Each structure stands twice: as structure tokens, then as C-alpha cells.
Amino acid sequence: MIKSFINRLKGDRVIWIITLVFVVFSLLSVYSFVPILVKIEGGTPFKYLTKHALYVAISISAMLFVLRFQPIFFNRISGFLFWLSVGLLIYTFFFGQKVNGAGRWISIPIVSLTFQASDLAKLALILYLGKLLEKKQSLLNSWKEGFIPVLVPIVITCGLIVKDNFSTSALVFMISVILLFVGNVPFGKLFTLFAGIVLMAAFAVLLHKSFPSLNLLPRYETWENRLFNRYSDQAVNDENYVINNAQAKNAELGIYNGGIFGQGPGDGKVKEFIPEAYADFYYASFVEEFGLIGAVFLILFYLILFLRMIRISIKAEKMFEKITVLGIGVTMMSQALINMLVCTGVFPVTGQNMPLLAMGGSAMIMTCVGIGIVQCVAAKYSDKKSKDAEAVPAENMAVA
């Protein structure tokens, strides 16, 4: 039944298989990784499983709905999606629901669900950059007519995200730079952009330090502690930092506890002491229960997913399609990699969870929408290849 269902889907079959395996597996893993959430907020594991299952259903429905359209449709609506995301980011900036001191979420009434505007903004920016880079290809050597119009959406998006989510803002910026490079933006302009951002960041920090009453960067102390005191044993007067550092240590302990074969599904112990075991520290919980062998397969599946998207991007003939597919692939792989590096103690604690696997919300929905767009591009060229293959015999018959 599953095989026949996959065969009816358009696009890359390998991406479909991995995506569906991940999404279905997320139901098992979320049910296993939420005991700490039950202790903190109450309820039962089944309550959180039901909520996650609702997000999974929405995500799969959104992914299948996206398949109804051609890539050109997303090119046309990319501007609308970008400015919609900007509006939601501005709303979040002032009225966002605060969790752990960061106002990143929009509360959806009646259904008691939350939506993170930055998840939409990441995808919308990728689509809009693809459109602009395709439209401005012959003007990218010009600052006024080419480069600056492409740069403005990046600055707006990163600027609105950075106050409450530095890691996501930095990730969006780095992905944007990669897409600008692939989109044939001259290296000199990219270097100038990077240098300008560094100087602006330094100026913002200096301003925050000089005039603390302005509260320009409300989470600056948390960022500083995470970055510079990650390996220090000195006392730090930052509650969020102390909590996050304890999580990081427990995450490393969980990975160690997993060994080669893992403790088995549902039998992990350290996960019960990691408040974000089902999201930001998903990889640690996963390795504890499925071990080194499970970790190898997990990394392998993400790499296959990423390489298939690169392949689709290379095949695409239009710049918009290349940029969109590559941007979605790089975003997914970067988030997964950062989650792994945080859990293993290489990176300081950030808020990046495992795509398609962590307890969902808006992140899972937008990831599935992104994969749906990738499959639209893949289907376009697979259909074209089939038509070309059918045309060849017909031409041979005509010659005969």
C-alpha cells in the first residue's frame, strides 16, 4: 500500500521515502522524548503525541497540496509571501508570546497552537531571493540596480529575527550568502556585505554596552555567556545560561550513555533531565536510545536527502528553481548539523531543532512545504525527461 502510494507521488522517490519515514518516526520519538515535558507542564505523553500528530497531519497535507502547482506559481507569489512574513515578524517583534525570555511565537486562538514567524520567513526569503536573482542576473554588477535590491530583503529579515533569535538570524544570513554566491553575485560585493554586517554587529554591541538602558539587544548577555563561557567553570549570573549549560552537559552524557547499540526505544534515562530533549537536544535523546549505529543511519539519511536536492538543483534550468531547491536543502542540512554539533558540545546552545523529526509545529509544517516545492521542481524535469523519451521513438519511426 505504501509503495503504491509513493509511486503515485510526483517528484524524487528517494526524497519521498526518507521524508515519510522521518515524519512517521517522529511520532514514536516524540512520544518517547517528552517525559521531561510532562514533569514540567503536566499532562500525559499521549497529550503531546496527539498535538504532534495534528502538526504531522497538517504538514503532510500542506506538502501534498503544494504538489498541485508548478514552480512558476511560487515565483509569482514569492513577493507576497516575503512581505507577509515581514508583517508577521513585526507583529512578533512587539506582541510575540515569550518562552524562555524570547518572544518568537504567535499564539493561534481556539486551537491552542503556536506559530513561529521566522519559520515562514526563512522559506519566503529563499523564494524571494530566487526570484530577484533570476530577475537581476544582468544587473548584479550594479550596486543600485542589482545588488542592493537583492540585499534589502536579507537585511530586513535578519534584522527582525535577530532580537530574539540570534542563531536563526545568523543561519539565515549565511544561507543567503551561499545563495548569492550561487546566483552569480560578484565576490567583491559578497566580501563587502560580510564586512559591513560584521561592522554593524560590532556597532550594535558597542551601543548596547554604552547605553544599557536602551535595551537594544535584550538577549545579548545570554548570547555572550553561551559563546564565551561554554567551556568555563566560572559562575555566570544568567539563569537561561545556567539552564542551557546544564542541558548541554546532560546531552553529552546522553550520547555517552547510548553506546553502540543504544538503550532501546523508550528506555533512555538521561533524556528525562534534558528539558528540550524532543527539540533542541533531539540528537542526544536519539543517540541515547538508538546508539552509534542509529546515529550513523540518521546522518546518512540527511546526507542522501541533501544530495538528492543538490542533484535536482543542478538539473533545474531556471535560476529561481536552482536557488529555491538549493536554499531549502542547505537550510535543512544546516539545522540538522547544528543540532548535532550542539548536542556533542562543539557549538554553543542554540534553538535549532531536527528537521522533520523534532516535536513539530510551524518548523515541521514549513519544512514539509519546502520539500513539496522541491518535489514540484523535480516533477517538472522528470515529466520533461519522460516526454523527451517518448518523442525519440516517434521521430525514429518518422525517419524510417
Offer a few descriptive terms.
mainly alpha, 400 residues, 3 strands
Q: Measured on Cα atoms, how large is the radius of gyration?
A: 22 Å
Q: What integer is the average pLDDT?
A: 85
Give the strand order, joined by hyphens, for the main sheet. 1-2-3
Broad shape = globular
Largest sheet: 3 strands, antiparallel
Question: How far do the termini sit from each other?
Answer: 43 Å
Number of helices: 14
What does this structure look like?
The chain is mainly alpha-helical. It has one domain. 72% of the residues lie in helices and 4% in strands. The chain has 14 helices and three strands. The protein has a three-stranded antiparallel β-sheet. It is globular and about 60 Å long. The two termini are 43 Å apart. The mean pLDDT is 85.
Q: What's the gist of this structure?
A:
The protein is mostly helical and 400 residues long. The protein has helices spanning 2-8, 13-33, 35-41, 45-66, 71-95, 117-135, 143-162, 166-182, 187-210, 220-228, 239-258, 282-315, 319-343, 362-399, and strands at residues 97-99, 102-108, 113-116.
